[in-house]
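Sample intake sheet
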Amino acid sequence: MQWLKNKYYIALSIALLFHISGLTGILFSSHKSWFIENTPLNLILMSVLLIITQSQKNIFFWLFFLIAFLTGMVAEIIGVNTSFLFGHYAYGNVMGIKLSGVPLLIGLQWFTMIYCSGITIHHMQVWMENKFGDMAVSPFIKTLSFAVDGALIAVIFDFIMEPVAVKLGFWQWNEHKIPVFNYTCWLLISSVLLFVFSKLKFNKHNHFAIHLLFIQVLFFLALRIYL
């Protein structure tokens, strides 16, 4: 058990170090472009830390990883090439290798966001059940609440992140403004992925995922305010 705690604290320390360094470098350093160009390293590392801190990685965990990655990539490819999802937008070159106009890292980021949202909602539900007991809610309503509440977390995160991502050159909107349709698609797709998350049987106790979500929210919120 002690090694699990050590692994968690190491991961949390690395996440704080990278996000604080990135925030400081983007806002105050003369090497702002260097920090922006190394965004892929940060995204990959955070995903790796989530996987490392996930205990009991069974086949269902890896299945969710694959589903989240592929769903995110397919949705984004449809969006970029047809505008049928999200709106009229295009990715820049900051995030590395692309497939049909979509960086592969975007699929990884979909996994990270949905996983962190799902873990957070799971912990909240467990806390409420321990605090108030079983409120005789039907399994359908409980699953629906899980999916929608988790999706709202993902949408709020996207709302905070979007203007920052545009300023940093991650992607651009052809309309020069972020459409409401983008958030509608995020809500629907995230709800489906979180429904899958709730049904797959793997360990959903990962406190690092909750802290990473808050770290990233604060990171983009600070950039949104001060950039």
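Comment: The mean pLDDT is 92. Helices lie at 2-28, 32-37, 39-53, 59-82, 104-132, 139-167, 180-199, 207-226.
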